[in-house]
Amino acid sequence: MLKVGVVGLGSISQFHIKPYLAHADAELTALCDVNEQRLEEKGKQYGVDRLYRDFHELVTDDAIDAVSICTWNNSHADIAIAALDAGKHVLVEKPLCMTVEEALRVEEAVKRSGKVLQVGFVRRHGNNTALLKKFIDSGDLGEIYYAKATCLRRLGNPGGWFSDRTKSGGGPLIDLGVHMIDICWYFMGKPRPVSVSGNTYRKLGNRHHIENLSFYQAADYDPHHNDVEDLANALIRFENGASLMVDVSFTLQAKKDELSVKLYGEKGGAEFEPEIAIVTEQHQTILNVTPQVDQLTFDFEGAFYTEINHFVSCCLEGKESIAPVADGVQVMKMLNAVYESAESGREVIL
Questions:
Q1: pLDDT in tens, 299-339
Q2: Of residues 5, 106, 87, 103, the one with CA closest to residue 46
């Protein structure tokens, strides 16, 4: 039985808590949040009586084997390192942290402790992901030399900690771009990034003046605080010659939201978002293939159940994580390089 403590009880925490409650070999043992009222409410809701306001107390609780970190990005590294050094396994929400320096410190703590650290790259755990990975790993697409990912919101700055750079580390790039870059990189076989050219723009703010169109707002939404980018784009080159183009936004003068992930290989191509599709050739004819599966779109909630199940298996059975700390470090290098390139106006060599 894996006894788990969850740190941070904001909106994302429910996607960790529910799968733990449903897992036969996991037990939700403790909760932690700086908001005492929310902590008490969640404790009653989930029947948990080990409640902490200080994560240091939770990670040193001998009754706990593993920790799920669902806090602001600026606390990920400190909590992860403290938990690892206390002998706990760790599942940390994406991004791993806010800087490359923090990421390397976390990686050292993983090596020091010998414990599991899994990064919350939830899109790696979708059913569609596993299906497409089979085609890629079998060589059906050949070498993937180009990928293109887009996640554009025309009106979707959540505000609150998401728009406070000291807490988030950035805007749509570190919040949405982390998913887009990671899933493409994962499908491409995780080649080593060698250079990044990026741009960020702060032109529109959070557009809180817009009426008649609703969007998700963080619990601590404050329309008057926003110091993160509206839009980011980047071209990432890899050691094997492959390249990745990505653009993401919280707000943009666009007709509609846009989500797409496309992969291009020597023998075939594929789309992962908005729906899975495969492009191939047979008998001198191009074929657009639609897999016959229950759901062509990414199942967000279902992927969290798969992610948590995988984490529990890694902790209890010694399985190798498909989202290890080393991957978190590499993704952080790419994210930070986009910001560095945008600030300097130059390509960044990694």
A1: 999 999 999 999 999 999 999 999 999 999 999 999 999 99
A2: 5
Contact between 201 and 229 under an 8 Å Cβ cutoff? The reply is yes
State both tokens at 39: 């902590």
Half-sphere exposure of 216 (CA within 13 A, CB side): 9
Helix H or strand E encompassing 68: strand 66-69
The pTM assigned to this predicted structure is 0.97
Scanning the structure block, which residue is given the tokens 């050094």? 85
Largest CA distance in the chain: 66
Separation CA 32–CA 9 (nearest Å):
7
For the chain, give the mean pLDDT. 97
Could you say which residues of the chain have pLDDT below 50?
none
Give the list of residues 6+ apart from residue 224 with CB closer than 8 angstroms, or none.
Answer: none
Residues 6+ apart with CB under 8 A from 146: 242, 243, 244, 245, 263, 264
CA 152, 157, 161 angle in degrees (round to 5)?
A: 130
Query: Quick one: pLDDT at residue 4?
Result: 98
φ/ψ of 318, rounded to 5, equals 75, 20
